[in-house]
Write a structure and sequence with these properties.
By secondary structure, the chain is α+β, with helices and mostly antiparallel strands. It has six helices and twelve strands. It has a seven-stranded mixed β-sheet with strand order 1-2-3-7-6-5-4, with helices on both faces. It has a five-stranded antiparallel β-sheet with strand order 11-10-9-8-12, with no helix packed on it. Helix 3 crosses helix 5. Bound molecules: biotinyl-5-AMP.
Amino acid sequence: MATVLKERLYTRVVGRRILSYKELSSTMDLAAQEAREGTIEGTVVLATEQTMGRGRLQRTWVSRPGNLLLSIVFYPSLKELPYLSMLPSLAVVRAIVGETGLAPDIKWPNDILIMGKKVAGVLVENTLEGDAISYAIVGIGINIAMDTSEIPEIAPIATSLDLESGQNLDPAKILRRVLQELDKLYVAVSEGVSPVEEWRGHLGTLGKRVTIQWGNEVVSGLAEGVNDTGHLLLRRDDGGRVDLPGGEVTFQLLSEDST
Ligand code: BT5
């Protein structure tokens, strides 16, 4: 059975339509198909399991039952687009804090970590038509009831909310909170409110030394800040400053070390 919402959802955009499946290859693909067919903005596609769950750069997302796997359809303007990639990580952080009391932080651009281990990931895929965005699909995976220590491919780097909280959390409650927080943030952005300050406040990456893959190049330096569109400002070891857009799939944060 797919995770279903047990209580009414109080939102303006997100979750106006919810499609729930037991198994999909990826919620991203079905959501994109729905978007191409003109589904209402805020449509949510949920799956209990994915056979080909994906991350950025062709990476795999381990997608077992008991966790949250969803994609949401948006039709943002070009002005809203830079913020769209900040909103899901912020909504997930707010939901985790509110529902569990745990204290996650964000690894730039949008991994959600607890004590350095990844508990949730976000993927945003945009489709352009000429100069306009035709649709953007926001994908969110949150580990809830998964003993990550039993999955060798992610055991050293991943965790789940049940493991961290020592509870059996209800995925439906967390889903509801994520959708409500995402809706509040999206409505605020469409009214001109920037999420940057709150997002920046949760970024654990700032002040750390990071190594980033940029196409075929690897750049190391100090993560000094993020600008108003979410670009990471990196002070390279040779003193030069680079500005890296987080939405670009060609960028990959390879490591971050405390200084
Ligand atoms: C992400 O990519 O973190 C984005 C993940 C988005 C997943 C959602 S699930 C619903 C929707 N449908 C999809 O098909 N995808 C989205 P990235 O930053 O590239 O991180 C991928 C890396 O995270 C992998 O290479 C692993 O190291 C690690 N990983 C894979 N599965 C994981 C899991 N369940 N928990 C924690 N880490 C994981």
